[in-house]
């Protein structure tokens, strides 16, 4: 029987002033947090406090809420859902190229990315109440939330971009305070569903080693919000993730269990082998404790890790107020490793230097092997 890992000690959330109103002038966001000194200053900024406050607000809004429960949906939510549906349609219109000899990302993803980027401005014009001069700033988060074009990978930093997109739209009045349940159970969850399509279509690689603290290869926030959904449930407990029948029955209603079902559908070994953190979490007694632990973990292991937040985009709405980054003279913007650090504190494979094969590629290779279709093009690569 698996035993729980020692409970890590996370720093308390700092108290910071709220962000000022977002009235512009707006600008295209850019990277600004590149050094250890800046990382240490980040938790004391208003942007950090606003982001964590937003996450906690959304987290509280869906406590005990099932995915099928009715909720208020403003015109902004309806427009956002149409935008996500358009992205999914672009995926279906951009099939993967023949890349059967590799378990890594499919090059067709770059075509998909370029199509999303080319439609981004027009897409955002459909959002009710969004100022025209804010589109360039807001759309940057949207364009980057689907994965990295150069590396054909995805991780918790890209997921954070989608959260920032929702945050900015709420700050600009597209979403309302009454939308918080819908933003999680409709908009965010629809985004996760489309991301699963992208991951399986283009075999997106995990960004860094195991997605840099995605609880599966890619994501963190569905587990956080999902544990809040389950917190008051009378019968389901964290250990329920080990019961396939329970997972299958309740996956349509709870994000956490839907994510477990997804992992089980892609990987054949036990959670203990390929997802040890999720296995350790399953021995916690209550979902409330899981949820509070995940909030602390998000501060420490996503917003507190340079390999993730050095890719964060700062603009006028989510602004950088800490020490300025070092000069970036002579940087080639086309280099996927440019504009961020690989220095001390960046663990093995924790950034973009070491590709990690896609679980979908590994699963396909195993299927081909069982079918007698494996050939010399399938390379045996250690995976998870």
Notes on the structure:
The protein is mostly helical and 384 residues long. It has one domain. It is 46% helix and 2% strand. It is built from 15 helices and 4 strands. It has helices at 36-41, 46-61, 75-92, 108-125, 135-144, 156-171, 180-202, 221-230, 244-250, 255-266, 271-274, 276-281, 287-301, 306-309, 359-371; strands at 30-31, 153-154, 205-206, 313-314. The strands form 2 sheets. Strands 1-4 form a two-stranded antiparallel sheet. Helix 9 packs across helix 10 (255-266). The longest helix has 23 residues, at 180-202. The protein starts with 29 loop residues before the first strand and ends in a 13-residue tail after the last helix. Mean pLDDT is 84; it is low at 1-8, 342-350 and 365-384.
List the helices and strands and how they pair.
Blueprint: E1 30-31, H1 36-41, H2 46-61, H3 75-92, H4 108-125, H5 135-144, E2 153-154, H6 156-171, H7 180-202, E3 205-206, H8 221-230, H9 244-250, H10 255-266, H11 271-274, H12 276-281, H13 287-301, H14 306-309, E4 313-314, H15 359-371
Parallel strand pairs: 2-3
Antiparallel strand pairs: 1-4
Helix pairs in contact: 2-7, 3-4, 3-7, 4-5, 5-6, 8-10, 8-13, 9-10
Organism: Vararia minispora EC-137
Protein name: Phosphotyrosyl phosphatase activator
